[in-house]
């Protein structure tokens, strides 16, 4: 059975049908990419699946459980993590604290114990700081371990989001344009990073405009255009699909 | 959070220990006690405003509930003051939770509006229920008895309040640098990011709002017993604004900023008394200037200037 099943998913904003009757499924352990021209509804699709938007119609199932309309924090308890295309970093916190907050659900969040500085909590926090530093090294941010988030470059912040998502120890991670705005060297690093994440057993869903990276990494690809599913298949199938070529390059009529 | 964040706490405790021996007279003693009481209230309010990013314009209302619980329940019903204080805190907590839950389901700064209204309603209730509260004239508050002896002299009050303040600073520092505190700061920094890592933002906002309201209620009770008298002015809108101003001037999301804000704004009216009639204008001008030149508040601005994080 597929890990994630999406059936006839739609969302309308007033008269705008941002996502229309999209159906696909994702098997556990693969890298699944969603591509399409700007405004095709890729990020909206992410927002629907991760609970930021509520679908107008349609069904989303995670391991068979209907999760459509559940809030993001409920999905987090089911091991769904994501990053954002437009950075969502807590600039009021240190870089490493952004990563630590990713482990939220794995911690004792009791207010009273925290205020009274229970030793068990402090000990766990010290371990967590180690874990978070380790994750920052994993995503290539070793030199930012002691930095404030607002002192970091754009490319570094993109990776900080990935580290935060990984701190959740997710089963399914949605990466929304992790390489957007990065230089070629950084893009290659992110490419390697996504591969490392996939190899660690996490199912990856990727939105990305860098076609080289998409073709390189993806087991399967979904193509959206004007909110509708245009095609779905392996990289090879997508590359040779006339509809996809027409959508990307235009046609002579 | 720097490892030396607790260093400031030692300084605070040291100052609190030395102060009573260097204060020239009871006027200053009284001023310092009121500063410390305000500081505890502002600490709680700063957790809400500065750290969690939610604004309450009705905190004086919560102070009022605490203060009047400590006045009315022992006077009319013979309750023990500590029990009355607890009852005030419980009622405040319940009321805050009741109001906060539906409001936080909405996006935006509705809490400010709702607490503004709530504070005014509490104030009106205190004014109108004259048979219980003495109406606009206020009422006397019986002395606080603690474990068999009465708290009466300024010295005794000083040590009680100093202890409360030290514990509050310590607890605030602990809270900020904990899973709970990180979640609070994260939902302020990016609500959607905190949600996707699993933070139930409504629950956290309600929790910190209730906590800061209960803080205020307890300190309202303490003030009532210390002053020995309560009046509705204590719970009015201007007092709420004054508390928010202390948070902002001292520095949002700064524990020590809360203390500085409370100390300065408690002292300022005294210092400005020489301006006779113009003190409100001067007061306003100082607030405006400090906001223009130090929008982040005193302590964070100075800390940045001297190259140290808070």
TrEMBL record, chain A:
Cleavable signal peptide: none
Domain ABC transporter: 4-251
UniProt xrefs under SUPFAM superfamilies: P-loop containing nucleoside triphosphate hydrolases (SSF52540)
InterPro entries attached to this UniProt entry: AAA+_ATPase (IPR003593), ABC_AA/LPS_Transport (IPR051120), ABC_transporter-like_ATP-bd (IPR003439), BCA_ABC_TP_C (IPR032823), P-loop_NTPase (IPR027417)
Short name of one Pfam family: BCA_ABC_TP_C
Keyword flag Magnesium: no
GO BP term, example: L-valine import across plasma membrane
SMART domains linked to this entry: AAA
Key words, A-Z: ATP-binding, Cell membrane, Membrane, Nucleotide-binding, Transport
Any single GO CC term annotated in Swiss-Prot or TrEMBL for this entry: plasma membrane
Superkingdom in the source lineage: Bacteria
Molecular function GO labels: ATP binding; ATP hydrolysis activity; L-isoleucine transmembrane transporter activity; L-phenylalanine transmembrane transporter activity; L-valine transmembrane transporter activity
Gene3D superfamilies: P-loop containing nucleotide triphosphate hydrolases (3.40.50.300)
Tagged with keyword Transport: yes
PROSITE patterns: ABC_TRANSPORTER_2 (PS50893)
Name the UniProt record assigns to this protein: ABC transporter ATP-binding protein
From TrEMBL, chain B:
Top-level division of the source organism's lineage: Bacteria
InterPro entries (alphabetical): ABC_transp_permease (IPR001851), LivM-like (IPR043428)
Localization in the cell: Cell membrane
Coarse class of the protein's main subcellular location: membrane
Protein's membrane topology: Multi-pass membrane protein
One Pfam family matching this protein: BPD_transp_2
GO molecular function: branched-chain amino acid transmembrane transporter activity
Sequence intervals crossing the membrane: 6-23, 35-57, 77-98, 110-126, 157-176, 206-227, 247-268, 280-299
GO CC, one annotated term: plasma membrane
Key words, A-Z: Cell membrane, Membrane, Transmembrane, Transmembrane helix
Protein name as annotated: Branched-chain amino acid ABC transporter permease
Record organism: Candidatus Dechloromonas phosphorivorans
Organism lineage string: Bacteria, Pseudomonadati, Pseudomonadota, Betaproteobacteria, Rhodocyclales
